Backbone:
């Protein structure tokens, strides 16, 4: 008997309702794309069937993998008709969940429980109840984006939410989060022209002076807290350090492709998604669905994301997300992250307000 996790059943039921919705709407284009993605994954997995240790893992892969990549689109499609008043109600609940999770991260700072750690084995990182580390990274990043765009497009909120999100994100301990925070702060300085404000100039000079004075102490603290990363940096090349050994996984995958793939696999993919992924987003997408699947997903995503009201902010954050996705993966194929991601996309469908809260055309 094949055991199926309960959450998979819930996700499958939801996606079935979504597919029925598409049929009722006679949305042939989306139906064809989704059907082809499932078909591509099935055919490609059959071509490497011997790589699966059991029928259960094979069936889970051909159903679960396409569903994961499609889940946030399905969720976004369901909620696009929600109005501002309903968004404000959802946001109240979201703030409550956010505060609860932040308390878990702060609690983990003072309690030495492995349960609260981002990584096992001594590497610094506190993610509270968020697991695994990729989920913790993206959830933290999505939080900051949701608060930023909610403030920009729905209604004014306290900047304390973003500040709290940034502070707790520094405890997560992942390079993806630190990269995002640096980009986010740099964006704010340029876009909001903070460099022209006296308080920012004073703050920048004060922080820079403190960092210079405390340079040796800070370096010692970083070496102590990030001892594992420091050892990787010292003993490996910079690419391995930045990619957390994903470059080595990629090299192993290239060997796998040369040994196992036929010409057609480059177009349809062919990998056991449970065992042989690289954690490089674009690479894993091609491994699962091939070049054809990559094109189909690009068309599908573009079809839905055209509902978003684009701006400099949206373009900048989209670029940052794509960089992080390409280098670390696990954003568009997570059903857990689909909820905050689809909520962020929903907020982005509303036009931007000016400084006085008036909608800009």
Residues:
């Amino acid at each position: 008997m094949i055991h199926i996790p309960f959450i998979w059943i819930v996700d499958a039921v939801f996606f079935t309702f979504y597919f029925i919705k598409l049929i009722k709407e006679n949305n042939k284009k989306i139906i064809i794309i989704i059907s082809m993605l499932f078909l591509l994954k099935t055919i490609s997995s059959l071509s490497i069937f011997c790589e699966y240790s059991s029928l259960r893992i094979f069936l889970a892969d051909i159903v679960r993998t396409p569903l994961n990549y499609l889940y946030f689109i399905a969720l976004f499609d369901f909620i696009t008709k929600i109005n501002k008043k309903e968004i404000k109600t959802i946001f109240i609940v979201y703030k409550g969940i956010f505060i609860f999770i932040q308390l878990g991260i702060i609690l983990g700072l003072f309690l030495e429980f492995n349960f609260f750690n981002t990584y096992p084995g001594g590497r610094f990182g506190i993610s509270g109840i968020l697991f695994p580390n990729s989920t913790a990274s993206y959830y933290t990043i999505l939080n900051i984006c949701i608060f930023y765009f909610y403030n920009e497009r729905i209604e004014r909120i306290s900047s304390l939410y973003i500040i709290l999100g940034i502070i707790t994100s520094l405890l997560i301990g992942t390079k993806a989060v630190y990269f995002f925070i640096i980009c986010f702060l740099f964006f704010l300085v340029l876009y909001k022209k903070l460099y022209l404000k006296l308080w920012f100039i004073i703050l920048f000079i004060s922080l820079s002076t403190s960092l210079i004075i405390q340079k040796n102490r800070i370096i010692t603290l970083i070496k102590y807290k990030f001892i594992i990363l420091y050892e990787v940096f010292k003993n490996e090349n910079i690419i391995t350090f930045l990619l957390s050994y994903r470059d080595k996984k990629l090299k192993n995958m290239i060997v796998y492709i040369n040994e196992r793939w036929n010409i057609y696999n480059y177009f349809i993919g062919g990998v056991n998604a449970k065992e042989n992924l690289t954690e490089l987003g674009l690479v894993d997408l091609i491994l699962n669905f091939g070049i054809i699947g990559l094109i189909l997903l690009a068309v599908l995503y573009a079809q839905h994301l055209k509902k978003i009201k684009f701006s400099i902010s949206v373009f900048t954050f989209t670029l940052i997300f794509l960089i992080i996705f390409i280098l670390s993966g696990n954003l568009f194929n997570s059903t857990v992250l689909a909820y905050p991601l689809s909520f962020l996309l929903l907020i982005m469908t509303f036009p931007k307000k000016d400084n006085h809260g008036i909608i800009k055309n």
Summary: The chain has a mean pLDDT of 86. The CA atoms of residues 4 and 287 lie 25 Å apart. The chain has 16 helices and no strands. Residues 84-110 form the longest helix (27 residues).
